[in-house]
Amino acid sequence: MGAMSVLFSPYRLGSLQLANRIVIAPMCQYSADNGEAGDWHLVHLGQLALSGAGLLIVEATAVTPEGRISPGDLGLWSDATQAALGRVLTTVRRHSPMPVAIQLSHAGRKASSHAPWDGGQLIAPENGGWAPLAPSALAHAAGEPPPEALDAAGLERIKQAFAHAAVRAQQVGIDAIELHAAHGYLLHQFLSPIANQRTDTYGGALENRMRFPLEVFDAVHAALPAGYPVGVRLSATDWVEGGWDLAQSLAFSQALHARRCAFIHVSSGGVSPLQKIALGPNYQVPFAETLRRETGLPTMAVGLITEAEQAEAIVASGQADLVALARGILYDPHWPWHAAAKLGATVQAPKQYWRSQPRELSGLFGDIRIGQR
Predict the structure, then answer these.
(1) What angle do CA 313, 254, 209 make, to 5 degrees?
(2) Range of the domain at 297
(3) Per-residue model confidence as pLDDT tens digits over 5-51
(4) What is the pTM of this model?
(5) Per-chain mean pLDDT for the chain
(6) Alpha carbon of 64 to those of 77, 126, 158, 201: distances in Å?
(7) Which of 11, 30, 185, 202 is catalytic?
(8) Pairing with 317, which of 15, 35, 68, 159 sits 20 to 30 Å away (CA)?
């Protein structure tokens, strides 16, 4: 009966074989120590790696110290941050075969902020923060000091930092890279005319605004082995008049497709507090559907996807190839188990948990045999 569910059918993402179409989206934890992963990441990622999803994407990971959203952000810019992440992944992989990707990011003008539970406001340098960098000296929110506009040397340094972080990720066994060009962070800031008002070759026309994100993609792609999956998370629209929109996202996605991008992960918003988002179940799925249809790129959909039948319909109807869960899987870390039970599918579970399979759901974890003394 499992073959009847498209959500639980296998999927190939470049060189990466996924057991099903469920992706755990990257979710910031704001719990690193100077960029280094620790015990929280081991517990958090370990729990998610036992969920039965097809792919786990590690949270937004800064490629430079000033690229962190908050002082607690995960980083991958040094031997110490690489070793810390490596220790966590070694333990997780000992107990789970789930492929693991990582989202590499630079926060741009949204850097140097408090964690959400501490208010999320900008932290001034005199209070332990730092000076954010951005395409243009335009503050994210009213009342904030403007960031420093990046010069040519700064752009080159950040581009190389993305490439170096990608190599570090590959060295610790990460299976795929996702570049963060969404949610108002640096690469998105270059794309959006709201944040990018440069007058050089990196600003103005769409082709110029796409230039730096595409250069970063090219640098990362070139630094990794042939066939290694590199994808991009993008905001399909700013939800602000005169900002980044779906038509521009299509042009960007087509440029990525020409560069052998492995996937796009379609979100929206984040570049301006003036955004007006029409929230509702599947509210971002039409963006994914359009970009998938027009480009042929493997596509991940997100946006208030909470129910098994809802996720099944998205992939079965061809709106997206994969469904990514964030808050929903934090709330229910066994969401894939419960979805498989509803859809009559099978899902992978650790053998230590096999005895938890309800009697009426025999076969949920596949053809298993449990002895008892």
Answers:
(1) 120
(2) 2-361
(3) 999 999 999 889 999 999 999 999 999 999 999 999 999 999 999 99
(4) 0.96
(5) 96
(6) 6, 20, 8, 24
(7) 185
(8) 15
